[in-house]
């Protein structure tokens, strides 16, 4: 297999996202990277689910972690009778796919495929963990190849010379869009909004851009209007945690306000990702509310007086009229015509 993660930043290499080996799953702790490079080692699939819930990994990281978690579940049931092992894998698939509520539909696609592979291995008397691991590795490689097509369509929208604003951490698309931009000889600079409370933009997106040799600038979450009004930004792009088939984008909270600003200042906003069949309308999406105490601190340091309250919606919803296009591996679609993605 030719690996599609070549020439990408450290944290986009498969082994540095999530990796199964010898009865354990190792996950890069993105809550503290790049200040420290440490891995959380999980010895049970429920620990993988908890790591996903606790944001040890985020963006697309949980999808790979879920597959590796299923391989670990395959190891855990290695000595069980076939029927019992099959039921065990099914329960593990549910646990891993439901680690975070907003991404259940996408996670179920990952764990269901792993479950099928695991059951086939059980029937054939092959090691279940090895079968699921091989499947997961092939799937992540295929995913990178598929997203590389998306990255090419997106990079074509970049100006020859200009600055691209990102939001949060879009995982693979960040590294691949920059790799594609370089291949197209586009002189791109990157501006990252910090995205509190985990500062993914500042810590993760900026690290990837820097590692890949790009000029990158971090701004706080309340600076985009200043940057746009002073002609510092040419295009805004984000990934999506969910895209409903009626054209709404669910992404890291703060995406909506950036889309509103782009609309006001006449800048394009392109979302990357495929529409979700499991979300025919936006009404089917549940917005995750996380621990509000995280808003009252910065990297573990309390910033608000005791007794002060907070809220922490993990995502917000951007309506289709604020989106210039949904960039997919099949091309760029109008948010009002997403069902065509499934028939093209």
From TrEMBL:
Keywords: Isomerase
Keyword DNA repair carried by entry: no
Pfam name, any one: IF-2B
Molecular-function GO terms, alphabetical: S-methyl-5-thioribose-1-phosphate isomerase activity
Domain of life: Bacteria
Any Gene Ontology biological process: L-methionine salvage from methylthioadenosine
Keyword Amino-acid biosynthesis: no
InterPro entries named in the record: IF-2B-related, IF_2B-like_C, M1Pi_N, NagB/RpiA_transferase-like
Family in the record: Belongs to the eIF-2B alpha/beta/delta subunits family. MtnA subfamily.
Protein name: S-methyl-5-thioribose-1-phosphate isomerase
UniProt source species: Candidatus Gemmiger excrementigallinarum
Highest classification ranks of the organism: Bacteria, Bacillati, Bacillota, Clostridia, Eubacteriales
């Amino acid at each position: 297999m030719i690996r599609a993660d070549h020439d990408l930043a450290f944290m986009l290499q498969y082994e540095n996202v999530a990796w199964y080996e010898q009865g354990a799953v190792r996950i890069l702790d993105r809550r503290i990277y790049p200040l420290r490079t440490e891995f959380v080692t999980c010895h049970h699939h429920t620990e993988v689910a908890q790591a996903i819930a606790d944001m040890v990994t985020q963006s697309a990281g949980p999808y790979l972690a879920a597959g590796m978690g299923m391989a670990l579940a395959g190891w855990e049931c290695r000595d069980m009778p076939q029927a019992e092992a099959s039921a065990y894998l099914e329960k593990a698939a549910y646990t891993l796919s439901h680690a975070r509520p907003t991404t259940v539909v996408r996670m179920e696609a990952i764990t269901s495929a792993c479950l099928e592979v695991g059951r086939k291995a059980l029937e054939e008397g092959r090691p279940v963990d090895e079968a699921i691991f091989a499947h997961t590795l092939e799937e992540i490689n295929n995913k990178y190849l598929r997203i590389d097509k998306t990255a090419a369509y997106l990079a074509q929208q970049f100006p020859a010379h200009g600055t691209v604003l990102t939001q949060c951490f879009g995982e693979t698309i960040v590294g691949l869009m920059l790799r594609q931009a370089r291949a197209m000889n586009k002189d791109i600079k990157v501006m990252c909004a910090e995205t509190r409370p985990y500062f993914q933009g500042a810590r993760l997106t900026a690290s990837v851009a820097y590692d890949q040799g790009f000029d990158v600038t971090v701004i706080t979450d309340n600076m985009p209007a200043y940057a746009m009004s002073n002609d510092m930004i040419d295009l805004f792009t984000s990934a999506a945690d969910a895209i409903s088939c009626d054209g709404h984008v669910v992404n890291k909270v703060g995406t909506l306000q950036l889309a509103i600003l782009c609309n006001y200042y006449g800048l394009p906003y392109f979302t990357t990702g495929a529409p979700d069949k499991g979300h025919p309308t936006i009404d089917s999406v549940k917005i995750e509310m996380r621990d509000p105490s995280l808003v009252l601190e910065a990297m573990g340091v309390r910033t608000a007086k005791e007794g002060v309250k907070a809220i922490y919606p993990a995502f917000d919803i951007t309506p289709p009229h604020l989106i210039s296009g949904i960039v997919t591996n099949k091309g760029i679609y109008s948010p009002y015509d997403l069902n065509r993605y499934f028939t093209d």
